[in-house]
Amino acid sequence: MRVLYAASEIMPFASTGGLADVGAGLPKALLARNTEISRIMPLYRRVAEGGFALKDTGLRLDIPVGFQMHQAEVWYANDPPPRTYFIRRDEYFDRSQLYSLPERDYDDNFDRFVFFQKAIVSLIDTLQWHPDVVHCSDWQTGLVPLFLRHGLQGSGRKQTERTVFTIHNLAYQGLFPGLHYSLTNLPFYCFNMDCAEFYGSINCIKAGITSANLVTTVSHTYAQEIRTEEYGCGLHDILAQMGGRLAGVVHGVDYSLWNPAVDPHLAQSYEPDNLDGKKTCKEELIRLMGLTIAADAPLIGMVTRLVDQKGLDILAEAMPKLMKADMGFVLLGAGQDKYQKLCLEWASLWPGRFAARLGYDNPLSHKIEAGADIYMMPSRFEPCGLNQLYSLKYGTIPIVHTTGGLDDTIQDIDSEGREGTGFKFRTYTPEGLLHAVNRALALYRRREIWTSVVRRAMAQDFSWDRAAEEYLRIYQQIMS
Ligand code: ADP
Ligand code: GLC
């Protein structure tokens, strides 16, 4: 089985969120199952400057974008395996961010990702390495199935590849003015309501959903939710009619990166039967973030993109009551300006007890997962969510809204802590959230029970093995 995995971000090269973690974990698990797999992504500035052993293939591809012809350089890296190809064109990708500045998206995102996606198809044709399956992810690769079918000029291509399209987040659809459609060079009939068109605009995620052989999303609950008006972001009718062509596959965790027993970012490692290291990590985190709380006071942690999805509206309303309790709160996040300001406001309201770091900081995210007691994840919706899974492994008990992957992966803890792995709340309100926080704080005071809950959380296994097997079955299914 030969697979080409295409995504706009892959760890460790470049990341804005969970999509990149999946691009690391899933291909690695597939490789271990004798799948011949390569990956492909753009060569952003942060890839060029990241200290990776990048090599130039010497290949140059001529890519039509509307009436223009642009050249793509093809670079690659073999470490970490599997091989990753990079599409380089500095005019498009040598920028400080991947998709947007804090105030707005780059205004040529359509040109950038049409170019990237066509370069994928052109590379397949040039390399003569014909994948059986091309696995695409999110809107940035939503047009790939169409380019594979119709070719770079829209005049047709002898397609042998099958396609899987994975929806990581339906809220980001890649919507662009219909006027730009000519940049694709695709036949005009693809710009209709059963394919890439959406109320006069181009909708890239819709193109992926309607044109791939099979569509997956990243949890069972989200696979159901997006068939409803509430979560379907305008595409629920199409999704509701897909039946078995839309499947949910819950992610795994790469435990070589996210495991407190081996994590190089921690002050001290720890394991379920010896939690001393977790105390040290907490002390370090308190010091690092400038908190003044006692070492045994509960500490809540949160690492997040600062966007509406992540439950920051109800958290903001709940904060004044929440911070009345004797506890600390550390937050690491980057994103919308309004939330960045809110974080700074909280830090000045509760100095010594609330601390925020604004920006993207992978080592600090590990320290927070390890050093906190409780993890805050009140997302309004969450297709899968990875931080709740990392939190389990680090014995940091998550508070989650029952939605998407959070509902699939966390079992509610009962009042005696006899079962369950996290504190769930169903009604998406500040009160709902506060109730869950109070349950967590009450159980935290009962130290022996708390420790048994921590050990149970750490024993959960969400390794990639299961998800990789499921994907192999899916690839086989669409090939037969
Ligand atoms: P999403 O993809 O919606 O952001 P996930 O829970 O799937 O949510 O994945 C988020 C990933 O991004 C996690 O690995 C998390 O640790 C990481 N992350 C998010 N924000 C930051 C940040 N500011 N600094 C470091 N890592 C972050
Ligand atoms: C998206 C989702 C998140 C998911 C991640 C990886 O960014 O918001 O829930 O875990 O993709 O699939």
Our Rg estimate from Cα atoms comes to 23 Å
Q: Give the strand line-up of the largest sheet.
A: 3-4-5-2-1-6-7-11-12
**What is the mean predicted local confidence, pLDDT?**
97
How would you name the CATH homologous superfamily of the largest domain? Glycogen Phosphorylase B
Quote the CATH topology of the largest domain.
Rossmann fold
Describe this protein's structure.
It is a single chain. The protein has about 475 residues and is α/β, with parallel strands linked by helices. The protein has 2 domains: about 1-250 and about 465-480, 3-Layer(aba) Sandwich (Rossmann fold); about 275-460, 3-Layer(aba) Sandwich (Rossmann fold), CATH 3.40.50.2000. Helix content is about 35%, strand content about 20%. The protein has 17 helices and 18 strands. It has helices spanning about 20-30, 45-50, 90-95, 110-125, 145-150, 205-210, 220-225, 235-240, 275-290, 310-320, 335-350, 360-370, 385-395, 405-410, 430-445, 445-460, 465-480; strands at about 1-5, 35-40, 55-65, 70-75, 85-90, 135, 160-165, 175, 195-200, 200-205, 215, 245-250, 300-305, 330-335, 355-360, 375, 395-400, 425. The strands form 3 sheets. A 9-stranded mixed beta sheet has the order 3-4-5-2-1-6-7-11-12, with helices on both faces. It has a 6-stranded parallel beta sheet with strand order 15-14-13-16-17-18, with helices on both faces. Strand 16, helix 13 (about 385-395) and strand 17 form a beta-alpha-beta unit. The chain is globular, with a radius of gyration of 23 Å. The model has no long low-confidence stretch (mean pLDDT about 95). It binds adenosine-5'-diphosphate and alpha-D-glucopyranose.
